[in-house]
């Protein structure tokens, strides 16, 4: 991707992290975020899918303020209301994906919060389970485990994964409509755990976010494979058979040749990705249960014509609401 490292903004440079996607960006000043800068980040995201910015100096308020400049923001109210959780952060636009409990202690293995967070260890696209899926996610580091204890975030390039499929496979999967559920991810991340074998965690007893598997990524004009650990079944196919097909595709897209890890180094590190052309997952580490890993995310609704999938434009339900 060497031909795509220049930027119209003087001093801004892209340093590719992988042969087909992801780049680290230098020369952007987050002390004064302008719309020109946001537009440039979006332009580069259409190419790279994932951008890494080091030591931005952003705090919660400026993180949220900047995120509004990217598009309509999703919020955490359904999760707080539906699951009886407490929001420990200053804004309902901040999704708390770290391992810090509302009382400041470190989330311990085996607690319900930890069981639910295990979802993030599997490749996914944010909010695939909602009627309006996520477009960009902006994840900011606040507190990190000491080096050597793991906790990177790994990304997968689903446009290149699609490109590499055989023509017959492309034809076979072309019209598949996938039903996505947060509960599919939660259950499969905790196989056999009786705590999640209740109706409350049964995907079939809740709504699905329906999205096409193969679709045009409008920002780049390339084709994307929209698969996720939330994917549960395919319209018109027996549930078990659909799930088998989806798990095969998820494994395929997550092969090492399509993936790129991003190490978090310092508080203020920011990673922005496009959920409509990449997947991501959290990498396990020895920090778990011992060291704080405090990462906070804002989530921009997909602003493309594919945002609502087959869920009806303007649907107001969101996963997590009672
Ligand atoms: C997220 C997410 C992964 C991580 O913020 O949406 O999945 O590494 N994060 O914490
Ligand atoms: Mn995520």
What does this structure look like?
- About 20% of the residues lie in helices and about 20% in strands.
- By secondary structure, it is an alpha+beta fold.
- The chain is built from 8 helices and 15 strands.
- Strand 9 (about 215) and strand 10 (about 220-225) form a beta hairpin.
- The strands form 4 sheets. Strands 1-2-3-13-5-15-4 form a 7-stranded mixed sheet, covered by helices on one side. It has a 3-stranded antiparallel sheet with strand order 12-6-14. Strands 8-7-11 form a 3-stranded antiparallel sheet.
- The protein is globular, with a radius of gyration of 19 Å.
- It binds N-oxalylglycine (OGA) and manganese (II) ion (MN).
- Manganese (II) ion binds near residues 120 and 126.
- This is 2,4-dichlorophenoxyacetate alpha-ketoglutarate dioxygenase.
Record keyword descriptors for this entry.
322 residues, alpha+beta, 7-stranded mixed β-sheet, 3-stranded antiparallel β-sheet, 8 helices, 15 strands, 22% helix, globular, binds N-oxalylglycine, binds manganese (II) ion, 2,4-dichlorophenoxyacetate alpha-ketoglutarate dioxygenase, iron, metal-binding, dioxygenase, dioxygenase activity
